[in-house]
Amino acid sequence: MPRLENRIVLISGGASGIGAATARLVAREGGKAVLADRDEARGRALAAELGAAAHFIALDVTQEPSWKAAVAATVAAFGGVHGLLNAAGVGVRNDIETCTLEEYRRVNDINALGTFLGCKSVIAAMREAGGGSIVNISSVLGLRGAAQAMAYSASKGAVRTLTKSVALHCAQMKYNIRCNSVHPGYIDTPMIAPRLDQNVGNMTGRQALEEMHPLGRLGRPEEVAAMILFLLSDESTFSTGSEFVCDGGLTA
Ligand SMILES: NC(=O)c1ccc[n+]([C@@H]2O[C@H](COP(=O)([O-])OP(=O)(O)OC[C@H]3O[C@@H](n4cnc5c(N)ncnc54)[C@H](O)[C@@H]3O)[C@@H](O)[C@H]2O)c1
Fold first, then answer.
1. Which domains does the chain have, with CATH numbers?
2. Cβ(187)–Cβ(210) under 8 Å?
3. Averaged in consecutive runs of 10 residues, what is the pLDDT profile of the chain (252 residues)?
4. How far is the CA of 132 from the centre of ligand 1 (A)?
5. Distance from the CA of 203 to the center of ligand 1, in angstroms?
């Protein structure tokens, strides 16, 4: 029995990394994936590969009209929306002294405000569909601080508590909409690629990051997608407002 049969899932950041791996899994499990991303070339290529199970829509998560258009396009393409994955994000290294106001705003606009707009924009259509599941990607750096990723960590902490507030509101309103956050460790995607070849002491960046995880390696996007699939599916119907960590033991 497919785990997402006839479920329609809107995926911000669906063109790459964790969002793309989730889109493949949604299609494999009998669902429809709407890939929403600012990277049109990669998004259209993946949608073409997935065929009738996928649709691409250009989205800038920082713009409310763009979100409204993405939800409307999802309903027009497949007839409704049951799932939302907020996976669009940027990773930036900075500390409290070097980060400019402009950079702090940019990171928080994409990672935190973009997730807020995604949740806000999808609720009415999800209610129309009888309910649904929202999954917001935070990070292990949404659970703790990071001297060298200050703005990123602040944005991911906001995603963590935004998720709980959305979950509580939807529960109080009896919308049958759940909302949970996922907290990956370092996952081998284009986001962290620039760090892997940089030298850290006598190690490559990849070796240094691998050593941070007790399992001794980076995570794969498919491993995070498997956790997201669980949260999108009816296997997780008693989970809302919760944090799901996928980090090879990093925070243990
Ligand atoms: N890779 C990791 O180690 C890691 C760890 C923890 C959390 N995360 C989080 O997982 C999520 C997915 O990251 P990934 O590793 O797959 O990265 P990725 O770079 O492969 O994918 C991110 C996608 O977001 C899109 N995007 C960026 N800004 C956008 C905007 N304004 N509007 C629409 N789309 C936009 C990009 O075009 C890209 O397709 C992010 O939120 C990231 O912060 C990643």
1. 8-184+220-246 (3.40.50.720), 192-218 (no CATH)
2. no
3. 96 98 98 98 98 98 98 98 98 97 98 99 98 99 98 98 99 98 98 93 96 98 98 98 98 98
4. 23
5. 26
